[in-house]
Structures are given as C-alpha cells and as structure tokens.
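Input/output pair, single chain:
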Amino acid sequence: MRFTGDSLDAVLHKLYSTLARDGQKHTGTRGDTRELLSVTLHITKPRARISISENRGKPFSALGELLWYLSGSDTLEFIEPYVSRYAKDAVDGILEGAYGPRLLSLREGINQFDSIHKLLTDKPGSRRAVIQLFNAEDITTRHKEIPCTTTMQFHLRDNHLHMSATLRSNDAFFGLPHDVFCFTMLQEMMARRLGVEMGEYHQYVGSMHVYEDKLDDMNAYVVEGFQQTREMPPMPAGNPFDMVARFLDIERRLRAGENLMAADEIDDPYWADIVRLLQAFWAREWVADYPNRLKELKAELACNSYGPYLDGRLHLKSRAPDAGEPQAA
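Output:
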C-alpha cells in the first residue's frame, strides 16, 4: 500500500483515513491497534516535514529527538524533557534501542555518517550507502526497547540525494511525525555535506499502526481538513555536521537556564531560527514572563513559518500535559 504526497500533511491525511477505514485489529506488546501491513510513504518535498496542524505539528519535541540522535546519547535524561513517553522504556536511565550510539559508534567506533560521506564521495552512484540501526542481537537479547528503524539508505542520482528509511514497525500517531522530521533533516544534512541538492523521501514500514485509544485523536486530525504545503527553508551551504557540537553546547546552556541571543551565537538566519525554537522550548521552564518571551522570539524569527508553533506554546502552557503524550510536543 503506497501513499504519496508533497508534504507530511498530505501523506498523513491519506494514511490516517485508510487506517481508520481499513486497518485490521491487532494486539501487540503495547496494546490493541489498527494495523496496515507493508506500507510505503513517498514525500516529494521533504522540507515540508512539519505538520501545520495543531494536532500533529511537533517541531520542538522532534528537534529534541534529532539532537539526541546527533549527541550519540542513549540516556533518558537527555530525551525525557522532550518526549516523556520514553520513560516507560528506560532501564536504569538508559534506552537500549537509542539511535545515537548506533549512528555514531556502531561496533565500538564506526561513525556511519562519516562512512556514508566517504562512500558517496568516492563512488557517487553506489547502492551500498546504507546505515544500519537494527542488529541481529536485538532479537537474540531480551531488551525492553529496540529500534523501530532497521536501515536508512541514500541514493545519489543526478546531483540529488534521495533517502529511503525502512522500519519494522511505526506508530502512525506518535512516532511517524517525529521520524519524518528527523530522517529528512539527516537527509538534508548529508546532502549539504556532499554539496548536492536534496532529493525525495521514501519510508517503508512493515507494520504501520495506531493504538485504539488514539483513534479519536487521529480522526480529529483528518476532520481538520487538508492544509497547504509549507516547507522549511533550504539549509545553507556547508557541512551541517560541523555545527553539531555547537548546537549541543547551546542546548546544554538553555537546559541550564542560560539566557542568550540566537544571533550572537550563530550568524546564519536558518540556524539561528533553530536556536530560537530551542529557546522557545526551554524558556517555558525558566522564564517567568513566558508569553512575552515568546513574542520576543517570534519577532526575531527569520522564517515567519515558525511563528504559529511559538503561538501554540502558549496554548500548551495553559493546559495540563497529557501523561500519554510527549509533554513538549
């Protein structure tokens, strides 16, 4: 079953409608679901990676998860403020299926991003540019949590870098919006590192499902109606991986309550806006006049498309967080 669209929203509307109508009941390890088997998603404009729906737009928690990957961390301490649901899967404060260590130090030291860059630099047409996240050990050893994503593959064709992610399992309501954001950001980062254009995004899922207790929320998103396509601006030229350490340092300082100006930290408007999104998230913990601080950050944005998400933070602050959802979504 294939779902194609020019944005995350376009694909979600088709997928959610089909899940509600044709999804088969299946009881998994975490509860009752509606499931579709062998699902392929195809997003032709993967910079339209953030839903513009209040129901599904999750740039703050998705950005936190991306930084968690890029930090190489497997700790609950890093990710829990962004996605509280991970606490259910942690063992002694560790997520055994965390992607970061597998991306950056697989087999005790292999940085898979570096490997992909070298391979596609030496052999641009290679079909071997595959990142592995799921290991054989994951089913021979009893872990509380293992990766849903098995592989990410890059294809460099006609100066465009396309990406295909393969998942054994995908929670259509919670996980999918995060996965599309994080994976397409990594796709664009690798494209910039290689000095090529961003291509299209494909995602294959063995079991695409939604939990029964989220069917009403999923249907509420569909009832909102189809939204217009809104893309993030293109990443600037250069190697974004060179900036990861700087972003992790900024995130650490914001987490500790430091007040800073994004433009003083990074002079590029694209990346300064990413800092402002992080500021909008952490200011909720540290700034007494939170509504006014959000207004200030919104006025500083180089890309006005992020403004509605900052407005949404005010609404989020006014209601009690749902224990079943990422509190920072």
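Strands lie at 2-5, 24-28, 31-43, 130-132, 149-157, 160-171, 197-211. The first strand starts at residue 2 and ends at 5.
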